[in-house]
Amino acid sequence: MFYNHFVYIMANEYRTTLYIGVTNNIQKRIAQHYFDSQNTKKSFAGKYNCIYLVYYEGFEFPKEAIAREKELKKWRREKKNKLISEFNPKWESLNNQII
């Protein structure tokens, strides 16, 4: 199935800081996070170098993606870690695997 909207989780190099976001262009958003981390550091993801995609979910409709993002942001860190580990056991960067 083709998805137009994504909820994603970015992590820093040591996987100690997480950033949860929603977008309709995940490749462009990853590039923006990377650019900000290397330059202006204006965003949370840029400031904390959250440039590694470790989790994502696709949605057909924006309201679904936004609702899921809000849900994930309320979770405790342990629950987020479990979600990521089930999807990506080694917490590898998925930056080059997303299409």
TrEMBL record:
Top-level taxon of origin: Bacteria
PROSITE patterns in UniProt: GIY_YIG
GIY-YIG domain ranges (all copies): 3-82
Family to which this protein belongs: Belongs to the UPF0213 family.
Protein name in UniProt: GIY-YIG nuclease family protein
Native organism: Maribacter polysiphoniae
